[in-house]
TrEMBL record:
Residues 56-219 form the Integrase catalytic domain. It comes from Corynebacterium deserti GIMN1.010. This is Transposase for insertion sequence element IS629. Pfam families: rve (PF00665), rve_2 (PF13333). Residues 27-48 are annotated as: Disordered. InterPro entries: Integrase_cat-core, RNaseH-like_sf, RNaseH_sf, Transpos_IS3, Transposase_IS3/IS150/IS904. It comes from the Bacteria. One of its GO terms (molecular function) is nucleic acid binding. NCBIfam families: transpos_IS3. GO terms for biological process: DNA integration. Signal peptide: none annotated.
Length: 234
């Protein structure tokens, strides 16, 4: 809240912000635990761990993390799959369905991420050991676009921590705020939430910037470097 006020040109201290929030009865929401939503695969998972808890990237489309979460509605559970670019924290792919089948949920999110990316060759795709991410159809799509599959070690609760953090923020900032009717109700709200996440939300891990700002700054810097290289080659 303090960072948001300062960005809006309001000259206010951190402690004053906290005091005014207490007086107004405003407080940040804590994140609770979520049940496991991915099914364990029947066969072995031979994907390596190419991340080893180091969720850092130096450019867009270098490392993606993916996971699935659930939403309780009046008509039953629906499920949301996200793919996030680690460099900018942008949600590059998402899908929502009342089924956890690979083709209906995570594959749709992956397809969206692939379409949004200019280049996917060498992108590391990191996920948990859920059956959806081990499935043949999912890994065929990764291989088709030269995306490298990765997964954390079994029993390591931090192996896919960044993707789980996205799920926690989604549940905490949107889903837990009101009851939901059905899959359509959640899908409409999720679309708006993803747009807000990418374009407006300040991320602590980005130095209280938005994903859009981080990508814009990278593009400007990268474009300048390309101009230098072109002149040098000329």
């Amino acid at each position: 809240m303090w960072h948001t006020l300062r960005r809006q040109g309001i000259d206010i201290g951190r402690e004053q912000t906290a005091r005014l929030m207490r007086l107004a009865g405003v407080a940040g929401k804590g994140k609770g635990k979520s049940p496991i939503t991915t099914r364990k695969p029947k066969g072995p998972d031979n994907r390596p761990d190419l991340v080893n808890r180091d969720f850092t990237a130096h450019r867009p489309n270098q490392l993606w993390v993916a996971d699935i979460t659930y939403v309780r509605t009046r008509k039953g559970f629906v499920y949301t799959a996200f793919v996030m670019d680690v460099f900018s924290r942008r949600i590059v792919g998402w899908a929502l369905s009342d089924s956890m089948r690979t083709e209906a949920l995570p594959l749709q999110a992956l397809n969206q991420a692939i379409v949004c990316a200019e280049e996917t060759t060498g992108v590391i795709h990191h996920s948990d050991h859920g059956a959806q991410y081990v499935s043949l159809v999912y890994n065929e799509r990764l291989a088709e676009h030269k995306i490298v599959a990765s997964t954390g070690r079994v029993g390591d609760s931090y192996a896919n921590a960044l993707a789980e953090n996205v799920n926690g923020s989604y549940k905490n900032e949107l889903i837990h705020n009101r009851p939901w009717d059905d899959v359509v109700d959640v899908e409409i709200a999720t679309f708006a939430s993803v747009t807000w996440w990418n374009e407006t939300r300040l991320h602590q891990g980005l130095g209280y910037r938005t994903p859009a700002e981080v990508e814009s700054e990278f593009c400007k810097s990268n474009s300048g470097q390309e101009i230098i290289e072109i002149k040098a080659n000329a």
